[in-house]
Amino acid sequence: MKFLLTNDDGYDAPGLAMLRSVVEGETVVVAPLVQQSGCSHRVAQHGESLAVQEQAPNIFSVEGTTGDCARVGLSSLTDDVDWVLSGINQGGNVGHDIYLSGTVAGAREAAFMGKPAIAFSQYLRVGAGIDWERAGRWAKRALDEILAQDHEPGCFWNVNFPRLEADAPEPELVYCEPCKQPFPVAYRVHENRYTYAGVYAERLRTPGKDVAVCFSGSIAISKLYI
């Protein structure tokens, strides 16, 4: 199989390198030149140009967003792609995050272009690092699980890994719907400036939905539709 890989953390991000290392098949990386976290589904238009550079064999950087990378990669840099994989993102993309995430947007854009796709993200607690080897192992589990299923046109997958202690048992794969609870809305105000001060880990969560599943220690797998 042939895979196009992208992300929103940049073409040289450790999560992308780890994802590429666990994929069994031909891979082509088309990812942003610099970090584009939180760029959502913004793409170049109205005459904007995108600088593209081959940084290494089959690794291309694009001076644009993750959505741009999916578009340029699928339309111009490679062909006969079977799947598009986006991630592994440094930070979770559950619930409300789905609408803000460049990682998810890369998979969504691929689905718009008729390709099956998966977004992978690793929930990150403030002050804690990421065990990328373990995240890669979980990505391989989830990837094998999803590839074994029949693909439904017009959909794509969003996979989120929990943050677990080093000695914790392997998490289970849980299929769930996205949580619809809002982010904590709080701001620090100084003069006329408002700085967002909500605490990500304290967000509301509906039992059984992706936020609760991931935060409670399982791998959350959601099927999303374009």
In short:
This protein has helices at 14-22, 66-77, 102-112, 132-147, 210-215; strands at 2-6, 26-32, 52-56, 59-62, 83-90, 117-122, 155-161, 173-175, 187-190, 193-196, 219-225.
Layout of helices and strands:
Blueprint: E1 2-6, H1 14-22, E2 26-32, E3 52-56, E4 59-62, H2 66-77, E5 83-90, H3 102-112, E6 117-122, H4 132-147, E7 155-161, E8 173-175, E9 187-190, E10 193-196, H5 210-215, E11 219-225
Parallel strand pairs: 1-2, 1-5, 2-4, 5-6, 6-7, 8-11
Antiparallel strand pairs: 3-4, 7-11, 9-10
List the keywords.
226 residues, alpha/beta, nine-stranded mixed β-sheet, two-stranded antiparallel ribbon
Explain this structure to me?
41% of the residues are buried. The protein is α/β, with parallel strands linked by helices and 226 residues long. It is built from five helices and eleven strands, in the order E-H-E-E-E-H-E-H-E-H-E-E-E-E-H-E. The strands form two sheets. A nine-stranded mixed beta sheet has the order 3-4-2-1-5-6-7-11-8, sandwiched between helices. A two-stranded antiparallel ribbon has the order 9-10. The radius of gyration is 17 Å and the shape is globular. Helix 2 (66-77) runs parallel beside helix 3.
Quaternary structure classification: single chain
Output the number of helix runs. Answer: 5
Roughly how many Å apart are the termini? 24 Å
| Poorly predicted runs | none
Order of helices and strands: EHEEEHEHEHEEEEHE
Estimate the strand proportion. Answer: 25-35%
| Number of separate strands | 11
Shape: globular
The percent range for helix content is 10-25%
Strands ordered across the widest β-sheet: 3-4-2-1-5-6-7-11-8
Biggest sheet statistics:
9 strands, mixed
Radius of gyration over all CA atoms, rounded: 17 Å
Structural class from helices and strands? alpha/beta
